[in-house]
Amino acid sequence: MEENLIKTCLHDRHVKLGALMSPFGGFDMPIQYVGITEEHNAVRKDVGVFDVSHMGEVRVKGPDAFKFVNYIFTNDLTGAPDGQIFYGMLCYENGGTVDDLLVYKVNDSEYFLVINASNIEKDVKWILSQAEGFDVSIENESDYYGEVAVQGPNAEKKLQEIIGLPIEDIPFYNFKTFKVGDETIIVSRTGYTGEDGFEVYGSHSYIQQLWDKLMEAGVQPCGLGCRDTLRFEVGLPLYGDELSADISPIEASLSMFVKLDKDNFIGKEALSKQKKDGVTRRIVGLELEGNAIPRHSYPIEVEGKKVGEVTTGYRSISTGKSVAMAMIDKPFDKLGTKVDVRIRKKVFPATVVKKRFYDKSYKK
Q1: 173 contacts 84 by C-beta, under 8 angstroms
Q2: Residue 64's closest CA among 103, 110, 106?
């Protein structure tokens, strides 16, 4: 299995730094360098950098680009200025989620889609299968791009010093393209940590040089371990846990990214029905009493009867509390509801809370 893993353009650097490497989404990725807690705290309090070159990039161009992307995407791109970024989902007709993604609007006839590593092949195939009748070209550019995420309250200051480009005036969820030598790089004010930060896309050689400069400047390299603890604390979903082909955006409590008042889009009918009739289960937050740590797929019970299961759980590094996101049947999803989490042979009392356990610190 190891031989078949894809290596990112920064793989040799992770190994040299002594990172703990592990398979993720078909890639050999760094899980941690000095430790998840230390890396997590670097991002919350200072700055850290992640190799996110495993993410997929798809470019949609052509006269029907806006019409097509708006048709496959749950959010609404209508009237958006160039340079704006949208979060949302691709859905099947039944409302299940193909993937969650970011859509970068270059202009009305060009969009840049950033998709999850484990879904690249499936997503590209699905996107291509929907394109009949639209005047668009669809290019999978995942092999060209490397990508790093520089995240934390000091991300802007540190990245600005290193790349020397005017990034300070990029608003949250916007991007700019810059000409650097012979290539064009993309810098967006986005991330997956709940902190201010940027994601930089460029050729493999550009990203390797940028990584080396970040290391020279003393920026903490961070692995996927703390990427998960950071995204989880601020209530951001992970495909495969809080979203899947069997979990719709409505069930995932992500209705705000599903614009049911726009023209037809794939899955609209099923999602409108779910919104109107209500769903039988949804993703909520849980806070456990004591120190027990809930893990993915642990059962949630009420009076000994299973009513759901944990999708992600941790002892929150930033708050010190044992918390989880969980898919729970109605009516046990209401705030303040008391439930039990089964951890092996014991049950631990928990309360349904909001699924954001830590406040985001994005730049306004």
Answers
A1: yes
A2: 110
Q: What is the pLDDT along the chain (364 residues), one digit of tens a residue?
A: 456 899 999 999 999 999 999 999 999 999 999 999 999 999 999 999 999 999 999 999 999 999 999 999 999 999 999 999 999 999 999 999 999 999 999 999 999 999 999 999 999 999 999 999 999 999 999 999 999 999 999 999 999 999 999 999 999 999 999 999 999 999 999 999 999 999 999 999 999 999 999 999 999 999 999 999 999 999 999 999 999 999 999 999 999 999 999 999 999 999 999 999 999 999 999 999 989 999 999 999 999 999 999 999 999 999 999 999 999 999 999 999 999 999 999 999 999 999 999 998 988 7
The whole model's pTM is what?
A: 0.97
Counting Cβ atoms within 10 Å, is residue 92 exposed (0-12), middle (13-18) or buried (19+)? middle
Q: Taking a C-beta distance cutoff of 8 angstroms, is the pair 73, 91 a contact? A: no
Residues 6+ apart with CB under 8 A from 238: 228, 231, 232, 312
Question: What are 295's two structure tokens?
Answer: 């893990």
